[in-house]
Amino acid sequence: MLRFVTSNAGKACEAREYLPEEVERVEYDYPEIQSDSLEEIAAAGARDAYREIGEPVFVDDSGLFIDAFEGFPGPYSSYVEGKLGIERVQELTHREEDHRARFRAVVAYADGDGVETFDGSVRGRIVAPRGSGGFGYDPIFEHRGTTFAEMSAEEKNAVSHRGRALAAFGDWLAERE
Ligand code: IMP
User: Fold this and answer.
1) pTM score, two decimals?
2) In b/e form, how buried is each residue of 131-148, taking b as 16+ CB within 10 angstroms?
3) How close is the Cα of 177 to the center of ligand 1, in Å?
4) Where are the domains positioned within the chain?
């Protein structure tokens, strides 16, 4: 059984679809360090959660990186989503010529041996909102003609940043056994 420390139910659902083992969601609100690096944020969170919970855990830190804004909002995606909302992020992006963006996710796993990180990314572009699935910026992120909010969980996992990071994590777990 794997313990996923996250307050985000959407992330937990995706991990369940993907990982071979059972995933239990643990709601511990670890203090997020401020950094431009998802790796640093995820690793610090996993270390902290492992110390607190005393069992092996993993966390995910992810974000939307918009090319025209040099990667903004990146690690601040959750804050910007809450303050501006995804429609305004889309409007601001569409004032620029370049609508390309990337989602990135880093999964960090911590146990008594230390911390391992696994990352994944996916390219797409920012579009007017479409679809009702997923969470966060999914309705405005289009990948090969379909927004993430128009995809099923399986379809999104097959191409998404989190799916790719979870796949690398799953491979590592399988090799370790
Ligand atoms: P975190 O909890 O600091 O990792 O924040 C991640 C934030 O990035 C979320 O609150 C969303 O705003 C955004 N995000 C990350 N992954 C996704 C995704 O798969 N779909 C949509 N938004 C995402």
Assistant:
1) 0.92
2) bebbebbbbbbbbeebbb
3) 30
4) 2-176
